[in-house]
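Sanity check

After download, print the first record. It should look like this:
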Amino acid sequence: MFIPAGDTLVDGVTPYLSRHRLQSAPRLQGAGLSQGRNGGALQGIPGSHYSHMYRKEIQVTTSHEGDIVDITPRVREIVRESGISEGIAHVFVTGSTAAVTTIEYEPGVLADLSRALSTIAPDSIPYAHDRRWGDGNGRSHVRASIVGPSLSLPVSDHDLLLGTWQQVVLLELDVRKGRSRTIVVSVID
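Expected structure tokens:
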């Protein structure tokens, strides 16, 4: 269980402690916590068991529905910046009409994924969301829900443990053009 250690310390990075005995965030304030050398890691409480966490956002502007953006280099950069050598990188896209996943980033597989999503949630059928809101992106919400907004990736030796042909991608699934997406990357040891 992660318990917030207080407000954001530096550049949008929020530290968290993992301790079951702590009851609330206010008890942590003034408990000898200090900002880590990388600006996002948490240090303090000698002899305690706690986790370091580093969080940073990636901003991506997409051009249209169906864009698949390789964000692997940026996620790797954040993992290196974190100073965390062994742990988990959690990748999360905000918004309900985009998704993140891993895939081999090559034209054939990307086309196959697009075709599969079009088969699962086709644009040729009526959606209750569209009837209610009239924005025509009911299929976008369904596709994003199926793929999902987040994934967790192992970190070892300050790098993502990915397969040779495996990349981390953002899927733009909204019918509206020119979306600005925020991807939150949290690295935890």
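If your output differs, re-run the checksum step. Summary of this record's structure: Residues 99 and 147 are 6 Å apart (CA to CA).
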